[in-house]
Write a structure and sequence with these properties.
The protein is an alpha/beta fold. It has 13 helices and 8 strands. It is 52% helix and 13% strand. Helix 11 links the parallel strand 7 and strand 8. Helix 6 crosses helix 7 and helix 8 runs parallel beside helix 9.
Length: 308
């Protein structure tokens, strides 16, 4: 039952200060975050791609309420596109962005985020790569999908993310399952009210399968974002049923989680993309990873107790 508490804590400034100050936190963060600097993230990309894995990079940051910070997020991604282009990694590494890091929560935030993310998408195309818009809490979904629509008029390869725990997501999948549409399906990692989202894990899982069926049967490019062995197996079976080739969908997993499974899927000929976060603003991302996996939380709490 600690999951909802941790999700709430992921947006608490007070708890952020406590967790950030704990000496053991750094050890845990290093499991999930490739580093704080761009150079560290590029080293991780080179290591992963040398083993046949593909990558999506996330410069950490969210819920920005200052225009200058939003511009810094934009500039961090522009620097990332330059680094990918310089090393010729565009075909193997894309980028994931959270629009709240581009000013979506500011007054007039929809237009601010669109203005800030557009040059990143343009630069990504020039570097031979693309951008996927991460999905955040339910209050941002309409704005995020509207920005996606704007970007796809010029850059149809721009990716979307949908979360199976939201009631609306099956309809969103139907709308996004058109030709060439890149859609990452995840279960969801924010604390959402019962009025908009399934609260029971079994219901979330069933919704995930229904959404997966829609995407696999559609004309787009499904990206299966899950570490759940059942969902991986179901995705493989659904792909087989509809006649999808191995390069017509991909699996995605988080950096530092189920690495052996990532390697196994590559060995079987699947496209396997690793979500690689980096940067100094790691707190919200880290707390959501603790909420998702009891083993991570148990290890962290034991470590805190032993240090105490």
């Amino acid at each position: 039952m600690l999951g909802p508490v941790l999700l709430a804590a992921s947006r608490s400034a007070v708890i952020r200060r406590v967790v950030s100050a704990a000496p053991v936190t750094r050890q845990m963060v290093d499991r999930f975050v490739a580093g704080e600097a761009l150079g560290q993230s590029m080293a991780a990309v080179r290591s992963l791609t040398s083993r046949g894995l593909e990558v999506t990079l996330d410069h950490l940051g969210e819920d920005i309420t200052d225009r200058a910070e939003a511009l810094r997020s934009r500039d961090a991604y522009l620097a990332l596109t330059e680094a990918l282009a310089a090393e010729g990694l565009g075909p193997r590494a894309e980028m994931s962005v959270k629009l709240s890091a581009f000013g979506q929560a500011l007054p007039g935030g929809h237009d601010v985020a669109l203005a800030n993310v557009t040059p990143v998408v343009e630069a990504a195309a020039e570097a031979g790569t693309t951008v996927t818009l991460d999905m955040e809490d339910h209050t941002t979904v309409d704005s995020t999908l509207a920005i996606l629509g704007e970007l796809r008029t010029r850059f149809p390869q721009t990716g979307a993310v949908v979360q199976s725990y939201l009631f609306r997501t099956e309809d969103d999948c139907r709308a996004l399952a058109g030709e060439g549409s890149r859609v990452r399906l995840v279960k969801g990692a924010y604390k959402e009210p019962a009025s908009v989202a399934y609260q029971d894990k079994r219901e979330v899982d069933r919704a995930y399968v229904r959404c997966l069926k829609i995407l696999m049967a559609g004309e787009g490019y499904p990206m299966i974002g899950s570490h759940d062995p059942r969902m991986v197996a179901i995705a493989q079976e659904l792909a087989r049923r509809v006649g999808r080739k191995l390069d017509e969908y991909e699996f995605q997993m988080l950096y530092g989680i189920r690495e052996a499974e990532q390697e196994r899927l590559v060995a079987e000929g699947h496209r396997m993309r690793v979500y690689v976060p980096y940067g100094t603003d790691w707190y919200g991302y880290f707390m959501r990873r603790l909420a998702e996996r009891p083993a991570n939380l148990t290890f962290f709490l034991r470590s805190l107790a032993s240090r105490g």
